[in-house]
Structure to design on (947 residues):
């Protein structure tokens, strides 16, 4: 489990509810550094909620979340924000007036605080984040003037600018076209392996999710299996939760999911 | 009041007039000014009366006149300053009788003119329309949105205004003298009349008031006996807003011998439930022309005995102005109502 | 840092607003019921009028408009709603209630019916009561919403407080006809009673609220990403929102206390600015302030000048100017 590195974020028997409906039941997972973990499962499995609980946005009604082996509640808001970066599923319709650069600079808030002024180091980090998501070319444009995919890359850059050891991404590929989806996958790999970040993603696209280092298969608020795709139990659990509508096959070095059309 | 300089001989009748008005002022004794002069007036008389003989008596009369005139002149000189307490409880102090007056309330305009000082008015609010001479005066805005610039440009030495509007504070901060006086009922009207007369240093407040009383009393006498004790409903605005017992209109009606369907507990101008008016079954209905004309159209009102028998007093715009303002035209207001009642047949 | 076109747009807007302010200030001194004559400055009587009446009124109108513009920008940023205005959180009804209480108390003073409460109200005066009332209204809203945790909760609480306080004010005006009359004037708003003292108070209010709002404007930027994203960035949403609400209350209270409820300025000024300038909240707050000042000053000058020596109520002109601008905005958006 900790083959890849120290555990950055962990959930121990976490239960959570949304609007009085229980969504997660006793979820325990480890999210080690230097590893890209993809949370997969059918609709309504509680994937986004799990991400929110890990980010500290939704309180756990049972169990606890550990950040660097300390309970999340013991961390101050600002320190938690410096260690856990979260990108939401919503894609920033409200930020129409802000420029891309302004949005990415918001990622430095956990380090600067509300009153701090950005220095040259912050500027460098912002530039790097924009380069990583390939939005530096139109950094001056307004968010409202961008396409969905461009906006998403800007928001991703915002999350990257936090430079947190844990990066939680909720559906980061929704509006992206295939070249940019692949670029994102490559980026996530680099962040995990080169920068040692614990990357956690919720991805709808199963084939993309299968490129992750580890999978967490979630169904009906419970973890069904966890581990790299190479492990057969993981693959079997995956096929099972998707009601055998897909088949996991290996093509070259990669695993992909093929829709099972035969009834 | 023009008084003789010491040394002039005043005819006996003039002395009597001065004496009597002084006694009246003494009897009132409601302002520091009058009590001072009253004390002096009363102090002079006993000395003059003790001299015997016709020649001696005329000499005595002349001497008395001279002393009296001197004292009155002194009185006049020292009474150039005037102090009153206005509605805010503030003491308004004037060193000399004001010659340029701006009035921001129609009833105050009428009061100033009733005291004969109309010529001293240099500006009014835009609703002041009586007497006709004030209509030509510069207008300084409405009751609450007075034009500060216009008022200051008129360079008044006294501004008469109503109640607690923001204009008063602003004008005072610009150095103007402002007296806040607003009559709400008959006693108030008398008090305001006296206060304005004191401020303006004009005599005759009592004469004006007694004229008002005479007119009112004459009007009361004109009300037919059959109307005494009958109950009235006076509508001041569609709503319906009624004039209650404790309002000045209610007071006027009471004076004329009429009752009011609105009890005193409801306040001066309550907004009534129309049902209340119908159930109270007033004997006579009064109001402005427009309001009265559409009363019959209100649901349930056409059955009202007063409306069916046309026991209705409709007051035109100018007449309504007279009745609505508790000022010097109270007598005229009483007459308007009395005349209307005289024209109607009282209910059996 | 900023793109050259954006920088140019900012400079143009700043220049336009400054120029407009100066031109209107000059016009403000020249327009009034007494008119203007060449050589007016030589006439001591007229010079008094100019200095003591028109000048403070002109400066005061700009300051009131600036405070309302700032408050409007804060409200629209806080609630992320382009239709928000400064009066949303119960400040207007609180101020109205304060005003009618003072008027009703004042009406009974002449009849020697005194009480401790009336004494206090009389000392407070109309201006003080409106300011205190506005603050109390917002405090009640914050209390009802249990702190500023959620925008929608805050909005709802503001509506409730507004309705309740408004009903209380109506009750008072039913009992006291003087209060009713005064309240109607208050509701329409007026710049006619602004003296140098009022200008000083307004300037102090602006000096307190504008820098503080500018310093914390990054919170508004973060809020545009969504409440959860803002929280994930470590933003203490509750306290920060409460602080911004307090600044909003101070700015609105100060403006309303001096000039009554002038409509449309707080609503329109941020839109005026956003049309020309797309920038983070720090810049738009400052620009809205200036735009609000220009808008109200223009309305004030027009109210004095259009029909001199009569005066139109300034609230009518802000509605006309602001309303027609909004209409033009909608039309432009539709045809573009």
């Amino acid at each position: 489990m900790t083959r890849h590195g120290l555990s950055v974020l962990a959930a121990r028997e976490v239960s959570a509810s949304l609007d009085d409906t229980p969504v997660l039941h006793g979820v325990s997972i480890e999210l080690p550094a230097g590893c890209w973990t993809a949370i997969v499962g059918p609709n309504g499995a509680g994937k986004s909620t799990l991400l929110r609980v890990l980010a500290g946005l939704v309180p756990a009604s049972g169990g606890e979340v550990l950040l660097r082996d300390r309970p999340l509640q013991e961390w101050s808001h600002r320190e938690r924000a410096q260690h856990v970066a979260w990108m939401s599923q919503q894609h920033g319709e409200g930020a129409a007036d802000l420029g891309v650069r302004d949005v990415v600079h918001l990622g430095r808030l956990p380090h600067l605080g509300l009153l701090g002024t950005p220095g040259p180091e912050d500027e460098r980090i912002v530039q790097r984040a924009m380069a990583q998501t390939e939005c530096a070319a139109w950094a001056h444009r307004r968010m409202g003037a961008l396409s969905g995919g461009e906006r998403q890359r800007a928001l991703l850059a915002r999350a990257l600018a936090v430079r947190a050891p844990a990066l939680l991404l909720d559906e980061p590929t929704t509006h992206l076209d295939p070249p940019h989806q692949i670029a994102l996958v490559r980026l996530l790999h680099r962040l995990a392996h080169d920068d040692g970040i614990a990357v956690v993603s919720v991805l709808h696209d199963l084939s993309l999710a299968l490129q992750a280092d580890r999978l967490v298969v979630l169904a009906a608020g419970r973890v069904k299996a966890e581990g790299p795709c190479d492990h057969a139990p993981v693959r079997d659990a995956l096929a099972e939760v998707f009601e055998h509508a897909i088949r996991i096959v290996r093509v070259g070095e990669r695993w992909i999911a093929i829709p099972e059309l035969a009834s | 009041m023009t008084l003789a300089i010491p040394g002039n001989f005043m005819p006996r009748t003039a002395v009597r007039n001065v004496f009597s008005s002084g006694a009246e002022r003494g009897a009132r004794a409601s302002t520091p000014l009058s009590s001072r002069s009253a004390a002096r007036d009363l102090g002079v008389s006993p000395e003059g009366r003790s001299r015997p003989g016709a020649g001696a008596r005329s000499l005595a009369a002349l001497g008395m006149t001279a002393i009296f005139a001197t004292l009155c002149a002194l009185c006049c000189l020292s009474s150039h300053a005037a102090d009153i307490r206005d509605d805010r409880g503030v003491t308004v102090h004037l060193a000399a009788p004001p010659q340029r007056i701006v009035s921001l309330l129609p009833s105050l305009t009428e009061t100033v003119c009733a005291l004969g000082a109309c010529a001293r008015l240099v500006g009014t609010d835009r609703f002041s329309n009586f007497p006709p001479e004030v209509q030509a005066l510069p207008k300084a805005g409405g009751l609450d949105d007075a034009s500060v610039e216009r008022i200051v440009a008129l360079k008044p030495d006294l501004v008469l205004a109503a109640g607690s509007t923001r204009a008063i504070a602003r004008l005072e901060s610009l150095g103007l003298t402002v007296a806040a006086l607003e009559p709400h009922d008959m006693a108030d009207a008398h008090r305001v009349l006296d206060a304005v007369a004191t401020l303006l240093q004009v005599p005759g407040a009592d004469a004006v008031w007694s004229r008002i009383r005479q007119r009112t009393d004459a009007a009361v006498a004109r009300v037919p006996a059959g109307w005494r004790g009958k109950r009235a409903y006076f509508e001041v605005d569609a709503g319906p807003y009624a004039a209650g017992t404790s309002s000045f209109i209610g007071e006027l009606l009471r004076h004329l011998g009429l009752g009011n369907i609105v009890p005193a507990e409801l306040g001066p101008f309550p907004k009534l439930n129309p049902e209340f008016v119908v159930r109270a079954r007033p004997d006579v209905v009064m109001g402005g022309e427009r309001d009265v004309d559409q009363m019959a159209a209100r649901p349930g009102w056409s059955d009202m005995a007063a409306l069916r028998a046309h026991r209705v007093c409709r007051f035109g715009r100018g007449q309504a102005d007279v009745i609505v303002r508790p000022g010097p035209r109270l007598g005229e207001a009483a007459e308007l109502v009395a005349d209307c009642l005289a024209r109607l047949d009282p209910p059996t | 840092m900023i793109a050259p076109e954006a920088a140019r747009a900012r400079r143009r807007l700043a220049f336009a607003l400054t120029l407009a302010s100066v031109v209107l200030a000059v016009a403000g001194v020249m327009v009034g019921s007494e008119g203007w004559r060449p050589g007016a400055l030589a006439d001591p009587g007229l010079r008094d009028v100019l200095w003591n009446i028109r000048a403070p009124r002109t400066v005061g109108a700009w300051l009131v408009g600036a405070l309302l513009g700032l408050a409007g920008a804060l409200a629209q940023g806080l609630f992320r709603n382009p239709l928000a205005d400064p009066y949303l959180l119960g400040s207007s009804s609180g101020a109205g209630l304060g005003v009618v209480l003072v008027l009703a108390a004042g009406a009974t003073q002449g009849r020697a019916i005194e009480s401790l409460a009336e004494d206090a109200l009389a000392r407070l005066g109309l201006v003080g009561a409106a300011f205190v009332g506005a603050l109390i209204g917002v405090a009640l809203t914050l209390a009802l919403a249990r702190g500023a945790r959620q925008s929608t909760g805050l909005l709802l609480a503001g509506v409730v407080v507004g309705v309740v306080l408004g009903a209380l004010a109506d009750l008072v005006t039913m009992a006291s006809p003087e209060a009713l009359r005064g309240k109607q004037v208050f509701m329409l708003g007026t710049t006619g009673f602004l003296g140098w003292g009022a200008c000083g108070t307004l300037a102090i209010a602006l000096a307190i609220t504008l820098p503080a709002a500018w310093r914390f404007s990054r919170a508004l930027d973060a809020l545009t990403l969504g409440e959860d994203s803002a929280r994930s960035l470590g933003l203490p949403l509750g306290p920060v929102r409460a602080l911004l609400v307090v600044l909003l209350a101070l700015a609105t209270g100060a403006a309303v206390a001096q000039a009554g409820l002038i409509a449309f300025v707080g609503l329109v000024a941020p839109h005026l600015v956003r049309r020309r300038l797309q920038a983070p909240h720090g810049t738009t707050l400052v620009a809205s302030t200036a735009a609000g000042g220009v808008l109200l000053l223009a309305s004030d000058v027009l109210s004095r000048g259009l029909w001199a020596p009569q005066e139109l109520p300034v609230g009518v002109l802000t509605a006309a100017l602001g309303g027609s601008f909004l209409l033009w905005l909608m039309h432009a958006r539709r045809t573009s």
